[in-house]
Amino acid sequence: MIKAGIIGAAGYTAGELIRILINHPDTEIAYLYSNSQSGQAITSIHDDLLGQTPLKFTDEIKEADVVFLCQGHGKSKEFLDNHTFSDSTKIIDLSQDFRHQAQSQLGNRQFVYGLPELNRSKIINAQNIANPGCFATAIQLALLPLAQAGLLQQEVHVNAITGSTGAGQAPGGTTHFSWRNNNISIYKAFEHQHLIEITESITSLQADFDQDINFIPVRGNFSRGILASAYTHFDGTAEEALKLYQEFYADAAFITVTDSSIHLKQVVNTNNAIVSVEKHKNKILVTSIIDNLLKGASGQAVENMNLMFGLDQSTGLRLKANLF
């Protein structure tokens, strides 16, 4: 059995991770670290797990085969600077601290960017993983097939809407119910932090890519899920576009490619992603949908764990969608 520890175990992504791991056939949870909740039952925070586990939060770090860092951005590096783990302990970081190439190393720990559809072979041999961002995951799934084919030759326009859980569990001015309900807004237009990792992934496949990615992030009035739509110039036919995406994702464990219209309820509460491909005059429109807490965070982190320990990528992750 793989012994897993979770640092920052009281947050949204940690809650999803706990739910997956207590049902994972090859994993047992060694500890759930939280300074603020130490000694409390985890169901005092993650009450959806009531009746499923007797685990409690702790402020002690124990031995584990893999440690998931589920703290806020900037906290993972700080935590690793102040705590020592065995060289044999694998680290999977869910913050943005090690996603960018210039920041991917800390001491003797080199972090591999953990998007399985891009870096599967590297992940299998990795000791440390930087889990992708949720927006970054959805947008890369929409663009990487074009990049691999060298077809991103003009500006790319992206509009993506996310649920309130994407902002984390700590309440804020734009996350509480009375502001978010019956409301919608744009934030960080053209300068969202996920653009850096998106661009690095694209140029790893298409080295000459030097166009703008015009990204408009939107706050949605729902709890979870991301719908990202991207369009750019494309000279081929609709059939050629669909074939390009089907071939790129032919062996992907959780990706479905379609030319049909899609909606968020098809993937919420699952680790699945659906990518819809359409041709409109001289443009290709690609829409991707994911659950931001699963395929965009904790589910993808477990995909990475599975690959790192030689398991089938989908182990413990075949969850059904709630369509109602």
UniProtKB/TrEMBL annotation:
- Kindly state which reaction or reactions the protein catalyses: N-acetyl-L-glutamate 5-semialdehyde + phosphate + NADP(+) = N-acetyl-L-glutamyl 5-phosphate + NADPH + H(+)
The first-level EC class reads: oxidoreductase
GO BP term, example = L-arginine biosynthetic process
Keywords per UniProt: Amino-acid biosynthesis, Arginine biosynthesis, Cytoplasm, NADP, Oxidoreductase
Kindly list the GO CC terms recorded for this protein: cytoplasm
Q: Which GO terms describe its molecular function?
A: N-acetyl-gamma-glutamyl-phosphate reductase activity; NAD binding; NADP+ binding
Question: Quick one: which pathway?
Answer: Amino-acid biosynthesis; L-arginine biosynthesis; N(2)-acetyl-L-ornithine from L-glutamate: step 3/4
Residue intervals of the Semialdehyde dehydrogenase NAD-binding domain? 3-126
Q: CDD domains under this entry?
A: AGPR_1_C, AGPR_1_N
Q: Which domain of life is it from?
A: Bacteria
The entry sums up its family as follows: Belongs to the NAGSA dehydrogenase family. Type 1 subfamily.
State the protein's name: N-acetyl-gamma-glutamyl-phosphate reductase
